[in-house]
Amino acid sequence: MDVVIQRPERFITDDDLREMVLSLPECQTYALVYRAVPLLRRKGITSVRRWGGPDENADAKRAVRDALADERLWNTVCGLLDDAFNVAKDAEARGKVVKSDSEAAKVIPDAFESVVNARWSHVLSGVADKPLGMCVADGHPTSVWSDAEVDVTPAPEPAENVDDARGDGLELLVLTSAMGWPYTGFKHGEERDVFVRREMVRVWHVVRSEVARWPDDDSMFRPQPYVLVGTPGIGKSFGCGSYLLYELLHYDAAKVPAVAYFLDGSAYIFHKTGAMAWRVVFHRKADDALSAMDDMAYERREALVKRKKSEGVKDAAQKCKAKCGFIIFDVGGKHQPGLELPTSEWGCVVLSSPNERNYKGWKKQKMAYYIFINCYEAREMKAFFAWQQRALLGAAANDASACADVSALWREVERRVDEVGPLPRYVFDDKAYKERCNNVADKLRRVSEGDVEH
To answer: The Retrotransposon hot spot protein N-terminal domain covers which part of the protein (predicted)?
Structure first.
């Protein structure tokens, strides 16, 4: 192209054709930029990468600008090279994390979109003409629980009639991600439905209030970490963790530019901004994710300080603080939160069973607050059952036999709840239910033997 621009009459002999080609916007732009190329090369800028960012090679760029003595041409050259440099930089950033399955980190294709665009359904109670008085419906309900309905801690043993409806009859929200969730490893065939109840929305209100407390500008702040404690088997990790992730991804990216989700010694980082926007990077080792988060924090700090200095702010590093995102850490087995979790620039919630050994030291050092999440209520268990049996529930509306089957199955669920408690994991999974019953029987036997000995 440069040879043609230098001597167009040699390569395009027809006058009309030559004029038409040279009048094309691409050729005109190239002709303009070509005038600057020799000057750029003399200053050592021989490639897009050597052009650098806005604050790089300032002296060389100033010399080229002065030599051109053409402000319009200089603006065109700068615009084209800045755009090209940014594209190259973004491609390099993606290349650092797009690795093979055998390596430490990899992008999970379409996972971000799957979570952000998760589909809503809901279950209503008190529907007189439906089996069990329950109705399963697609979409988000017209009205959801008010803050006043949600932001209360229910009594330990509420006196409720499972057949009564409350409020507008909304008992359960269901959030379905086509690819699943971090808890399921985004694996095909795994559970995709997350059950959102009042208690989980209450937890989100606490987290949302914390993020809303952070300043809208770049002034200093201290994120408040939390420990969410709940009985195993109520959907604390899968349900509440996934729901918090969904809400945080929908929150203002200026305050929550990324979400890091730790579980089973690995981590998923959901990027909302920058070169990796709308991508999920899976780090097989949690330490690798922490290193990536340190790099992200460093880049955000440097960019913030540079911007503030350009605005005339003195001591910007001491007066300003970057917001990096939010951490969800799911405690499991030997994988417990470490003090290296960067809670000074990231919000954080740790999900744990009541076993204090999971988090006690971390909570003390980080001065974290508790959030307690309660078990399912009777109507929520019934709504959960209605969703699980929604196909049979639909058939039962016009089939007496199917209606009888639904009622019999529900009576079995009620019996299990009486035996093992309102814990979906142990009520609706036959294997888990039997193991739970055996464990309870074993504990009772040991207590009984202890009483005899004393």
So the answer is: 112-214
